[in-house]
Amino acid sequence: MRQQLSFWGDWTRNKAGEPASVIRRTGDDIELVELRWGLKPRCPEDRPAINIRSEGRHFPSHRCLVPASEFFFSTGSGAQRTRWKFSLADGDSFYFAGIWRPASEDWPESYAVLTIAANPDVAPYSGRQMVVMRREDRMDWLDPTRPEEELLRPLPAGSFRVQRER
């Protein structure tokens, strides 16, 4: 899978503030662009918003997809810290649902990933997770006429393979 995604870069190794490949709709076209990960904070002393809670919010425009093959969560701390890798159980790649914002005078075009309550596979490691869109559902997120409540849902139990990294 990673070979297939190399065209887009390796999102799973990106850090906040770094550019990543993002898919978005512009009019009737779909384009692949590089955007900075992290929306401009409201206060200069705050960190950029890399994740946005999706519950109760509407995103009628500026929807985007971030190609990925895995994501990580850590549990514990210090010597007891364990890193967990999550990928789709069927080995397929997927997309994170996100939103993007145009550039301003002092901030480049950027994006954030939407989050939801964790599905049963992720819940033992984190109470929240990024919204994962399967390949067959990805274009639905880019359709602004599709309601958020139909799309921003956790995948069913058994959807993720969980592996201990360290």
Automatic annotation (TrEMBL):
SUPFAM superfamilies linked to this entry: BB1717-like
Superkingdom of the source species: Bacteria
Keyword rRNA processing found: no
Entry keywords, A to Z: Covalent protein-DNA linkage, DNA damage, DNA-binding, Hydrolase, Lyase, Protease
InterPro entries on file: SRAP, SRAP-like
One protein family per Pfam: SRAP
Enzyme Commission code(s) on record: 3.4.-.-
Gene Ontology molecular-function annotations: lyase activity; peptidase activity; single-stranded DNA binding
GO BP annotations listed: protein-DNA covalent cross-linking repair; proteolysis
Family that this chain belongs to: Belongs to the SOS response-associated peptidase family.
Name the record gives this protein: Abasic site processing protein
Species per Swiss-Prot/TrEMBL record: Propylenella binzhouense
